[in-house]
Design goal:
136 residues, alpha/beta, four-stranded mixed sheet, 18% helix
Length: 136
């Protein structure tokens, strides 16, 4: 028997109200540039949208009693954070700054339903070596 281990993060699910699909495709797909992944046929009837985010995925899932998540959030690593700031602000997306995180530059936005999303870029002047996680 092999030793169990966690090998990575597959996806993050973001909740949204029924009928969210067009807005999800516009925000996460067109604006943020995340390619849509076809949902398996047996899950497609539930609604929502799946998107690729690097090697991971973001699943926008429909819930009947939807409430925006204002604290818990995905943090999406980007390059060109300043260009993202300009692009998003030009489309009317509100940018919310936060306290610095060592080695990272970042800000928050909200999706069309009010869920908190963090965009972050490695600060190469402060953290030139990529972070490697390890479990002790």
């Amino acid at each position: 028997m092999s030793t169990p281990e966690i090998v990575g993060l597959h996806h993050v699910q973001i909740e949204a109200p029924a009928g969210c699909e067009d807005a999800a495709r516009a925000f996460y797909g067109a604006l943020l540039g995340l390619p849509e992944i076809p949902k398996p046929a047996h899950l497609a009837a539930r609604g929502g949208v799946w998107l690729a985010c690097g090697a991971q995925q973001i699943h926008v899932g429909v819930v009947s009693d939807f409430t925006p998540r204002r604290k818990g959030h995905p943090a999406i690593e980007v390059s060109g954070l300043d260009a993202w700031r300009e692009r998003l602000a030009a489309t009317g997306v509100t940018i919310t700054e936060d306290e610095p995180l060592p080695g990272w530059r970042r800000f928050y936005i909200t999706d069309p339903w009010g869920n908190r999303i963090e965009l972050m870029e490695r600060d190469m002047e402060e953290s030139p070596v990529p972070h490697q996680s390890s479990v002790a």
